[in-house]
Amino acid sequence: MHPIEKIKSKRKPHPEIDVSQGRTIAYSRSTTRRLMEMLDANAHGNVHGGVIMRMVDEAAAIVAVKHSGKSVVTARIERFDFIAPAYIGNVISIYCSMNYVGRTSMEVGVDVQAEDLYTGEIRRVASSRVTYVALDANGKPTPVPPLIAGNEEEQKIIDEARQRRLQTQNEDSRK
What we know:
Helices cover about 30% and strands about 30% of the residues. It is α+β, with helices and mostly antiparallel strands. The chain has a single domain, classed as Thiol Ester Dehydrase, Chain A. The radius of gyration is 18 Å and the shape is globular. The mean pLDDT is about 95.
């Protein structure tokens, strides 16, 4: 048996969720942290951008899976801005939260910080927005619960993301 098929055969089916019941941003918010080591960096001690991108994709997917209750795939990385370098020995913290939910897609906002454990300095090193699509058992897009605001701050995040989404759809339709 192929190793991936073996893993799939041991998985339990996803529990059914009520996609009419909305979930708040706070429901699926997540933070992931990891110490940067030699294998994560170049000869100058700078962490490779690709290492941070992979960590962001994995951390943001946690938010999408938690919100949807389904398997997800990365559909789009709308932005990925590197702001400052991260170094060997830094602890990278990736803060992720849901920004927007469509019928089957979800936009997750990401903020990446690097902490020097010896000095306590914390620097913002990257930010991103990643879109995921939820999949059913057959690998087809499937509906997800709506995103509802738990407070005024969450409503502002949702409204801003909705505006970005409309702008992106308009730009895509002109292509």
